[in-house]
Amino acid sequence: MTPARSTARSTARSTSRFTSMVSSTSLVAALGVVAGFGGSAPGLVIGAQATTHVAGMSAAGTRPAPVTKTAAPAKKRVAVKKPTVPVKKPVVKKPLVATAVFQSRITAGTRPVTDSAGRVWQPRPVEFGSWRMSTSLKGVDIAGTADDGLYQVGGFDVKWYRLAVPASATYRVRILMAESYWSQPGKRVFDIRAEGRTVISNLDLVKVAGKARAHDVTFTVPVRDGELTLEFPASRDYSLLSAIEVVSTAPVARPRPAAVRRAVTFAPGSVWTQQVGRAPLADNSTAVVADLVRQVADHYGGTAAFNAYEYNTAFHVAAKGQRRVDVGFYDCQRKGQVPSGLYDGPRHFQSVPVPDDAAAAVGTDAMMSIYDPAADQIWEFWQMRRTGAGGWQACWGGRLDQVSRKQGYFPSYYGTSASGMVLAGGMITIDEVRAGAINHAIALAVVESQAWPKVSWPAQRTDGGTRDPNVVMHGQRLRLDPSLDVSTYDLTPIGRMVATAAQRYGFIVVDRAGLVGVSTESGRATARRTGVNPWDRLLGGPSYLAMKNFPWDRLQALPPDYGKVAG
Q1: What is residue 547's DSSP assignment?
Q2: What value, to the nearest 5°, has the Cα angle with vertex 266 and ends 261 and 268?
Q3: 445: closest CA among 339, 385, 335, 367?
């Protein structure tokens, strides 16, 4: 298992109408530039301002003239006999919305900050387009502000920031900055763009404010597609941002956020959804965790893998009525014969609803999961590939029936993981990362594990090779210390999500690999349909740094066979 290295790409959209008001803690005249469009909203003036009328739209926005309709001729009334059975009035469900001013405040740092007004600014989210940080201003008095904490950590090389907004409306954006490195002008120069239009060109923080001095840029922007997109292209060095505030200029309807659905529905309270925050610890928990820490430290520079681009699971949901095909067997392991159960008995390789646009994951494992919720079945295949005739072949795999009644592992020796666990149950999905929360146990691959017959339920088998009793078993569950304050660690947004889930649901050891790592949902199929891999938008840096600074030494090992149930 080798994590992929990739540079995230930013995308831009343009809008046909734009309203902007730019202001600063220093005079806009000092900028030497003004926004080339405008129409400021009243009550949003901070310092100097520049406004420019945009043709076709006033500051308040123009509305189309009302259309006069010609009345239709009246129809002759016909007497209708009333029904003897009373007609029930339809039940009208009230929309689950609340009207209020939308507010979002985030910092470039990894920890929350409370400002002088008592408002909490949350740590950088996953849609903050960089994982790189400048901390050289920590402990430094920041001139021009009473809120030093908002400016002392900067995110640099920020290519974008994307924020889902609840309604089509106008939003006031405030970008907080403080130069942390350069003392001469001309060394750091970048633009600020919003919804595809340039707000500030050639911003030079030293020129307009100086080093270690607060500098804000504020503007208003209409958002019509549900997502505010900011971009920060740099012409010299990298962009540098400290915090971003977004507030709607008027109350907006805010729908109740939808719960993040799990990719696969297993039995209620299955191993994948069982919470382990109060579970007892194994007698040798300290020794098991110490060995796992060694495995992390000894491989790939001491950072565990987050496999976003390869060696993950291509997850597909079969549509209702999807044509079913037989998956061919190819003998990549030189068994010399077709194993039983693939085309006889349970017939694991027959009548599989492989989607027409299916794509296996990148890497020699070429994993693929196919979930059919209507049939309550899931298939997983190892080394899945298309054939020249337009069909499919796999080296191994399996099918699980009545998924919603099962714990999340395959029968006998079928399935693709070395433990027999359903990999889709523990993969980190694209939707979960977008939502900022993982609500299940996470599948974990390790470098070393105990040899057969030492396995921990729910694992059914192992490919481990050591007899050391203080090495983790396949199927063993580990959790992050529930008392740990994860906000005190400099984690990436993804690392913070994994840590929170590990405190509540834990990890389950499912496989062996070349380094310790977690499994994700492949974005390859989406990339083939849209031309954009979702992970390009979600990763603020190389995937191999997603788990940087994760506190592996604060894990706790649960007893073998913890929570074992029949079935």
Answers
A1: T
A2: 90
A3: 367
298 to 37, 38, 286, 304, 445: CA distances (angstroms): 55, 56, 18, 10, 15
- Specify whether the CB–CB gap between 382 and 365 falls below 8 A: yes
Which DSSP symbol is given to 565?
-
- Buried/exposed code over 345-363 (b: 16+ C-beta within 10 A; e: otherwise): ebebbeebbbeeebbbbbb
What separation in angstroms does the CA of 333 have from each of 57, 204, 295, 336?
A: 67, 60, 28, 8
| Dist. CA 36–CA 32, nearest whole Å | 13
When computed from its CA atoms, the radius of gyration of the chain, rounded to whole angstroms, is: 28
Question: Which two structure tokens, joined as six digits, stand for 542?
Answer: 């190389």
What per-residue confidence (pLDDT) applies to 388?
A: 83
Lowest model confidence (mean pLDDT) among 63-67, 77-81, 399-403: 63-67
Beta carbons within 10 angstroms of residue 302's beta carbon: 13
CA 59 to chain centre: 36
Two tokens, residue 79? 């007497």
Q: Are 517 and 543 in contact (CB under 8 A)?
A: no
139: exposed, middle or buried (Cβ count in 10 Å: 0-12, 13-18, 19+): exposed
Cα 526 to Cα 532: distance, rounded to the nearest angstrom: 7
Is residue 134 a contact partner of residue 274, using CB atoms and an 8 Å limit? no
Q: For residues 544 and 305, is the Cβ–Cβ distance under 8 A?
A: yes
Three-state SS annotation for 352-414: ECCCCCCCCCCCCCCCEEEEECCCCEEEEEECCEECCCCCEEECEEEEEECHHHCCCECCCCC
What is d(CA 230, CA 516) in angstroms, rounded to the nearest whole number?
A: 35
Phi, psi of 297 (to 5 degrees): -65, -30
Tokens coding 312: 């993950």
Query: What's CA 271's distance to the chain center, in Å?
Result: 23
DSSP 8-state class, residue 420: -
Start-to-end CA distance of the chain, whole Å, equals 31
Question: pLDDT tens digits, residue range 180-208?
Answer: 999 999 999 999 999 999 999 999 999 99
Got the DSSP string for 483-535?
A: T--GGGS---HHHHHHHHHHHHT-EEEEEE-SS-EEEBB--HHHHHHHS--HH
Q: For residue 418, give the nearest of 346, 473, 347 by alpha carbon.
A: 473
At position 357, the amino acid (one-letter code) is D
Task: Find, among 181, 197, 173, 195, the residue nearest to 236 by Cα.
Answer: 181
CA 194 to chain CA mean position, Å: 22
- As a whole number of angstroms, the distance between CA 286 and CA 292 comes to 10
The CA distance from 375 to 372, in Å, is: 5
Contact partners, residue 546, CB within 8 Å, separation at least 6:
131, 306, 308, 492, 494, 495, 539
Q: Report the C-alpha gap between 151 and 205 in whole angstroms.
A: 13
Please tell me what DSSP assigns to residue 116. Answer: T
List phi, psi (to 5°) of 481.
-45, 115
Kindly report the pTM of this predicted structure: 0.81
Q: How many CB atoms lie within 10 A of CB 530?
A: 10
Q: Say whether pLDDT at 77 is over 60.
A: no
Q: What is the DSSP letter of 124?
A: P
- Is the CB of residue 37 less than 8 Å from the CB of residue 57? no
